[in-house]
Amino acid sequence: MLDPIVHFFQRIFSAVGRGFGLLVAWLVWPFLAAHGWYAGRSWIIKAPLAAIFVLFVGLYGYFFWQTQVWTAFDPDFVEEYRWSERTTAAGQQILAPAPASADAAGTETSTTATPAGQCQSSAIVDVIADLTDVNVNQNAWISSMLLYRLGLFGIDWDHTPFLDNKASFQRGVNQAVRRTSVELVDTLARMRGTSGINSELQDARNNLQFDEYSWYFGLSPFGPKTPTPSYYRTAIEGFRAFNTELAACNATFDTRADNLVQFVDRIANDLGSTSAILRERSENFNSGWFDTRADDRFWFAYGQLYGYYAVLSAAGADFSQVIRERNLGPLWTETLTQFRSSLRIQPAIISNGREDGWIMPTHLATMGFYILRVRSNLVEVRSVLDR
Questions:
Q1: Transmembrane stretches, by residue range (predicted)?
Q2: Which of 144, 194, 189, 197 is closest to 166 using CA atoms?
Q3: For residue 86, how many C-alpha atoms fall within 13 Å in the half-sphere facing its CB?
Q4: Is the pLDDT of residue 341 over 90?
């Protein structure tokens, strides 16, 4: 009685085996044909082809290494700055204690602090310069690499589940840096919006707006180009130069409450846009582990949160006086805690399953949930500052 069932499964396994064999043969035959053709050629032809093959393997080896190794990635890197030890808001003059003097009884008495001739640099500017440095100096900028531009047999890497996570993460971080640079130029580094725009910051902002995918040569327009990382490295120099000017009291950083309100509002709006992108993908494409665009959506959002976590941690130091005056300390700390909680989600494989599914998880919906929690805290911060 079991024979029909046994034969049925035998036929199934046999068909699967034949199908797998045909797939392997289909994948291998071009290499076998190329090897047969190559073996019959002279060394005049073999040598250049061998050199091209070695170059090809080397390029792909380097590309694979750069996409898989994330140098200086650390969600807790903001702790290294020790911003909690700062006592002066950005742009304000730093006061140094004068030498102690002794009274008639021989005891030392404290004296009024005297100006040290130095102003406090901006933590925000420091951190966006460092974030960009990690993106283009400590790591290769993946999005403009030649093999990333060429794709997988002409298919955009973003449309595959392979080798695009780091590129999406870098673009997410860069989105946070770009948004911050705009606010620095337009409001934060100007006195009530009426003073002149700082040229160093303006140049840095313009360089950061450059195309993220530019290589040394392009087709539209046709001809040689300056690659993306070169523009971003120039932006880093602009940020460093501004902070040098600020530390010498030759630049402006306006730490008014309404500037912080606008800055927080811009960040909340930017995160709201990303939340909408995650929601659209999560609702309309429930392919689980087989959604090839879920990973780049997820890692872009992760990179954006990673960047804004650092930026807002720095803003807490730059606007420390405002935060104290408005009694925002606990709420500000809670907001940063929400950011840090969202960065704990680091799945090996991104899945975009149904929200009520029980086999394949829905990482996009989870990330969207954390973004909404963060955005809710930012809206509350804005509300307190507006009172």
A1: 12-32, 44-65
A2: 144
A3: 25
A4: yes
Q: Residue 314 and residue 378: Cα distance in Å, rounded?
A: 15
User: Residues for the chain: how many in total?
Assistant: 387
> What residue type is 154 in one-letter code?
G
Q: Which residue has the tokens 């809670």?
A: 334
At residue 111, the pLDDT reads 39
**Residue 48 exposed, middle or buried by CB count within 10 Å (0-12, 13-18, 19+):** exposed
**What's the angle, vertex CA 134, arms to CA 292 and CA 315, rounded to 5?**
100
- Residue 106: both structure tokens together: 């021989």
- Written as one string, the DSSP assignment of 237-292 is HHHHHHHHHHHTT-S-----HHHHHHHHHHHHHHHHHHHHHHHHHHHH---BTT-T
pTM of the model: 0.85
- Alpha-carbon distance of 302 to 345, in angstroms, equals 9
pLDDT of residue 130: 98
Q: How far apart are CA 123 and CA 247, in angstroms?
A: 11
Helix count and strand count (H, E) for the chain = 12, 6
Chain segment 39-89, per-residue pLDDT in tens: 666 778 767 777 887 888 888 899 999 999 999 999 999 999 999 888 899
Task: Report CA 243 to chain centroid distance, whole Å.
Answer: 22
SS3 340: helix
**Those residues with Cβ within 8 angstroms of residue 143's Cβ, 6 or more apart along the chain or in another chain:** 167, 170, 171, 212, 213, 228
- Which among 236, 238, 255 has a CA at the least distance from the CA of 120? 255
